[in-house]
Specification:
single chain, alpha/beta, Rossmann fold, Helicase, Ruva Protein, domain 3, 2 domains, two-stranded parallel sheet, 14 helices, 41% helix
């Protein structure tokens, strides 16, 4: 585990993350919270699902994040006729060698952009299950490791739109967070007309970080301290989804793990070596909502999963030390924050 004898690791992390953030925001105007969540998922070793209506910059966000990091990138255009082997790869008989040779699919990259993932059949969507969870692909009994870092950034239109297939529950559960880009403000849209009116800003986008930098940052995030009370608070939030009357499917234990990892990454991006309940609260909707299935009565009442998670946050007690003067005041306490090293 990474230790913090000094703040060099966090300083490097925030500086590198700031460069990536600024690079992406140069393409996606007026959406700083969306860009920050994307960076949080990247450093938490998760996968990101970008869901919104067409034309709001879903694919642009995914491309901007990928091009800001100097690593291998593959793009998969999901269509109804796409086959699982197009994603994972296939073994082909080599006449000269008299043996099967494995041809890697599009998933063998450090950042995989899945465009319109819900336009492919559920069978093809499921080809990503093993790679997203275990970071490997098994073909004909042979296991092939995927590169590090590895992140899937998938975009999709809302499932009620024509020509789409809802993602299976197992597929949604493997995405750490879901984000909606939303329509830009008037000022941001006017700026977009100036910036994007001539040439695409993606053409001039240069990498501002290397793949090995991201690997080091991920290791630093793993070392962020999470107190017992904060872990219990995350478990209480997730457990509440499993007994809520408006939900017929609550969040899984994987969701708890993802929520904790995302909170650690958010804390590191804020320059802290310890996580707060505020980090958990801020990410709960993005991490949990897309995994939940409302009941028929809730759907008739137009109750969304996001509203249910917000309600759970309001009714779940926050650890006592997070009250004013304690953890919530952003000060290190012996119970929650790792004591800072003494300066000589």
């Amino acid at each position: 585990m990474t230790t913090y004898d000094d703040r060099a690791s966090l300083t490097d992390l925030t500086a590198t993350a700031e460069r990536v953030r600024a690079s992406v925001e140069g393409v996606i105007e007026g959406k700083p919270e969306v860009v920050r969540l994307s960076l949080t998922v990247l450093l938490a070793e998760g996968h990101l699902l970008i869901e919104d209506v067409p034309g709001v910059g879903k694919t642009m966000l995914a491309k901007a994040l990928a091009r800001s990091i100097d690593c291998s990138v593959r793009r998969i255009q999901f269509t109804p006729d796409l086959l699982p082997s197009d994603i994972t790869g296939v073994s082909i008989w080599d006449q000269q060698r008299r043996d099967f040779e494995f041809k890697p699919g599009a998933v063998f990259a450090q950042i995989v952009i899945g465009d319109e993932i819900n336009r492919a059949s559920p069978k093809t969507q499921s080809a990503l299950l093993e790679s997203m969870e275990e970071r490997q692909v098994t073909i004909d009994g042979q296991t092939h490791e995927l590169p590090s870092p590895f992140m899937v950034v998938a975009t999709q239109n809302p499932v009620e739109m024509e020509g789409t297939y809802p993602l299976p529950e197992a597929q949604r559960d493997r995405f750490m967070a879901r984000v909606s880009v939303g329509y830009p403000s008037v000022e941001a849209e006017l700026q977009m007309l100036d910036v994007h009116g001539g040439v695409s800003p993606l053409e001039d986008l240069q990498p501002v970080a290397h793949a090995h930098d991201i690997v080091k940052l991920i290791e630093a995030v793993r070392g962020v301290h999470v107190a017992e009370a904060v872990r219990r608070y995350a478990v209480d939030l997730v457990s509440a989804t499993r007994s809520h009357p408006d939900l017929r499917l609550g969040a899984s234990p994987r969701a708890t793990l993802h929520l904790l990892r995302a909170a650690k990454a958010s804390a590191a991006l804020s320059g802290r070596e310890y996580a707060l309940p505020d980090d958990v609260q801020a990410l709960a909707v993005a991490v949990l909502a897309h995994r939940l299935l409302p009941t028929a009565q809730a759907q008739l009442s137009r109750r969304t999963s996001e509203q249910v998670v917000e309600e759970i946050i309001q009714h779940t007690p926050v650890p006592a030390a997070a009250q004013p003067g304690g953890l919530g005041s952003r000060h290190t306490t012996p119970e929650f924050g790792r004591p800072r090293p003494r300066r000589l």
